[in-house]
Write a structure and sequence with these properties.
By secondary structure, the protein is of the alpha/beta class. The protein contains seven helices and nine strands. The strands form three sheets. It has a five-stranded mixed β-sheet, with helices on both faces. Strands 6-7 form a two-stranded antiparallel ribbon. The radius of gyration is 21 Å and the shape is globular. The termini are far apart.
Length: 233
Amino acid sequence: MGNTSVRRILKDEVLDPRPRPARSGRADFQPWDVFVKLHLNTLVACDFFCKNVWTLRGKRQADLLVFMHVGSRWVWVSPATYHPHGEWVLQRARNMLMWLEARGLEASHLMHDRDTNFTAAFGHLLRGADVRVVKSPVMAPNANAFAESWIATVKRECLDPFACFSLGHVDQLVQTFAGYYNRCRPHQGLGNRVLGQACTPMLKLAQGGRSLGSIGCRSDLGGLLKSNYRLAA
């Protein structure tokens, strides 16, 4: 279904998918994409994703929760669980807040979908940390595009090639990929640079006759994830 059809249906049903409710009587509400752009550097996006685990009792679904600081692209991923209930999600929110503080990342808004595991206690915890909770529109995963894109990436580049046999196996795969994503993977949206590193041109050093050192290759997960680095000259 195209964007025009979706817009027409929402209008016919008097549904407003934008982040501010139409309770003030104003017609100039802030569009969703404008809201995201304005809060890009202080916005955290989170979402659940899953991986099937083969056990002696048959196939089970392991759930994980990812938090992305959208402006910087840093991600934090929870351990896997078979029971993602509200209390488990609340503890992951506490861990996420400590992670933000440790990395010195500022957050004013947190975006998530309408999963019932995001309880009132979850929202109360975040409000206590001066983080406003923003729920994405109903059945609109594209509204949380940053988290959805990361989930598609970790599945395509890491999880899909593997059959998992325990929660520990899932955690080892996902945490390895998260470390690779945060420290080694170049990001097109950030000028193809690695997170936390400035993109320094090396052409002038090469033209000046200085040795830049050889290139080494680091591999993880049996060679599935590879990254290059410069050896000391």
